[in-house]
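[job 4417] fold queue: 2 targets
>>> target A
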Amino acid sequence: MIEMVNLSGGYGRKTAARDVSLAFRDGEVTAVIGPNGCGKSTLLKLCAGQLAPEAGTVRADGRDLSGLRAREIARSVAYMPQSRPVPDMTVGTLALHGRFPWLGYPRVYGEADARAAEEAMSRTGILGKRGEMLARLSGGERQKAYLAMTLAQGTPNLLLDEPATYLDVAVQLELAAIMREAAGEGKCVAAVMHDVAAAAELADRLAVMKDGRLLAAGAPEEVLGSGAVEEAFGIRLSRGERLVFGR
């Protein structure tokens, strides 16, 4: 579980997330939605220890991140950023990189690390590509490889920034199923998403942000009925069998 209390942070003089109090719960998928530039990605970086807070607190499984070393954080929270380089390595090597927080000295991968990486690749459907170079993969395959690395990290908390952006529908559905499976195992799963309808379908809870602030958080039906989505995106939202957007 990840808890934020009056959390603020950003980059240099720009505060991108402001006074956010929110919890990502164990056994649930929380989708963080809002317009571009509203602070969603910054919020995840603060929760992953990638950024130091300007104010407030982040706790992972009851422990304040400010008092933990990077390796301790990485044993509790796995973070998959939206933008990543394409390193010159195979899928299997990338998956093994997720085990780095657990390596002792000397930093040599053991049998347990190999098993964790193989299981993660199997779960994401990329095991058959384990010997292929990342640069030769499609966008969807590469996303599965990075998700395998994230799962191989073996943490109770998973933070995913736009995991399905620019991917075809089939891959989006596969990734959604993986997130739901992880939550079903008791993990805390939070994902920044840009597709409101997909977020409402996937998530147990929605968190809506605008201008760095949290407008609403709760069950999808509650949040969709609160007017927060309309306020955040400047749209008209009708709910029947499907969500309908208008101006």
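>>> target B
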Amino acid sequence: MAHICGDKPGANRHDAGQTDADRDDYQNLILLCPTHHTLIDRKENESVYTVDALHEMKAEHEARVLARLDQEEMTSKNSLARAILPMLEENRQSWEQYGPLSELARSQPHNEAVHAVWVSERLSVIVPNNRKIAAELDAHRGLFDSAEQEIITTFLLHVRSYEQWVEDAIPYAAVKRFPIAFDHLIRGLADAGV
């Protein structure tokens, strides 16, 4: 993960007018492989990889991803669940590998680099995936029955509170825990639709 406007003074594209929250906001982050991260942060490439150019690259990539997600029309709960499941699974893997209860975090509780990876995963994977899942659910709420609506509403509350916590707007204790019933619902519908 890279900052579009550099994180620290002297970094490429650093904007002294940004707040710390703006600097770490999703809008100022871009996911890059290590090779391209190094390439865009070279001083000699600053005129090529401008803020506008990086925002355009990010927007084009997100549009390609969304277009792939939209390939299957969401006419059933099963097709919607199949579209959601990969993002849900990616979030689960991030949590298990890097989250505060992961083996990595428990074995190195005071390692700032380990914590930084977890912060990166929250900002670059979990929050964007949650936003996409929530958007799909909001757009297709009518596909679900009343019992499923309760599960979906609980998940959406989790998404909103989780993002508020990531943005330091609420304490972690106020985050609605991830509803396991939502995971079961999506996995069951995805499997049934195959």
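[job 4417] complete. Note on B: The first helix runs from residue 20 to 23.
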